[in-house]
Amino acid sequence: MGARIFHKQREPGQSIKRLALGSASVLSFCLLAVQPAAGAGVAAAARTGDLNEVRELIASGVAVNETERDGSTAALWAAYQSDLEMLAVLIDAGADLDAANRLGVTPLLQAARTGDTPIVRALLDGGADLAAAAREGETPLMAAARAGSVDAVRLLLERGSDPNATEDYQGQTALMWAAAEGHADVVGVLLEAGADPDLKARQSELTERSTRTDFPTGGFTAAMWAAREGHESVLQRLADSAADLNLLNGDGASALSIAIVNDRFDLAARMLDIGAAPDVSALYYAVLMRDATTDWLAKDGSKLRADYPNELTALDLTRVLLEAGADPNELFSGQMHSTSMCCDTRENGTPFYRAAVAADVEALELMIAHGADVEWTPEPSTDGPPGGGPGGPGRGAPRSPLAAALNGGKGVGMAGGPGDIREGEDPPFREVANRNPADAMAVLLEAGADPNRQTGNGSTYLHDAARSQMIDVIEVLAANGAPLDALNADGLTALDIAEGRRAEGSEPGPAAGGPPPGLLDQADDGKPSMEEVAARLRELMQAGGVAIVEHGVVPSDDEAAEDGDGA
Question: pTM of the entire structure?
């Protein structure tokens, strides 16, 4: 995953400070409040840019350091308006260059925020104190770095600014701010001055989250900011200065995986050439992004997830990572946290397993060619949601890749707030692919997956396929040696389930095994009816010379009617 791992799609020119989708955001600008003074004074005259009046008021003995109601002084207004001549007059008159307004903004900090080198120089030459200019740890150097002013950054460094100082809120440095904004030349200057590229921003000590709120875990490096925002030139500068591109943030995510989950596929591929290692989280999220849809929302539902015009597809990137040495069988367990309603689904699986969840035929074939284990199954979780998320089984019995593929091909959830669900609609995938569960299972079976493995509830894949009304899957399993007369824990065959039979002595109803009685001839969302499933099973059994033996109890007409009335 955050810092918010995810970068919400933003409009051109929109500031990163407004996009904390995850992330430890940089301090927002504290804009000067334009408030009229109680009466005429030097500050009011400076606010309107009236240099002659400023001179006359000073000459008449009016205090040069008087403030307006928001605490702004004439010197602050001169810096705000980049009025070098007025600032010189005020300095000559003894203006206090370290006086801050009620927001804590001094003239030097204001000038640095706009990268105004002449004003910064005049203030420093006039005696402005670098230490006094910091607001909640935000130094003039940080402000100038964010503004992208190479000259102002050089000047502040020459005058003694610490390139590794951190602000109070998120523990971020000038280098992180410059990297996030894509100011490669500023990054270069800071690195030359001794900025540490491997410093991490603050990592949250909080651990408890709920479905209603989330928060960034933090721990971003400058490279992670650059990767999230897509700044290749910044990453190159960092790599040239021996930055470790493989450090992990608080969610266990590398800069490479952060680039991938933010749809920066082309950048991710180039990162491999400058020192990024193809770690398991990167491969896992490349496979996950292959499952992305055009309606995929940030967790708070406010914006769509990032979707950039890459030359590489997620499948292309998966291939690149595999060729670079990524392991399709390495377990990835993690979760991305952000400023949103709640966190992304907790992932718990191998990259290959995630492809099985997606029933992604091409991705499965690709990773099988690189030695994927077709039987690897996650351990059951004790703290996940019942049924689990896309990457793992959640509470209850674990699912094998075959079982995952049988239920796969549904895409990522829309992932917004309550009500953001696709009701009866096919997922609008970003990438065209074969996600047919039957075809995915055929690939797994051809690679050696066991068609007779139990699915965890005493059933086989054949029982589950019959229950899910998936005739094409039944045919694939039969063609690959699945015994059509296999019994589940209730002593029923797949045919028994299709015909609505239940174990002797069990109560009628869906829990006894099979669909609700009385619904055998009803199709579900275009699926074959259970009657059609039963007919096809009988055909396959007769063609294969399998004796048809009925087990269990057929529901009575009264039971069927009762269940039908209660539906």
Answer: 0.84
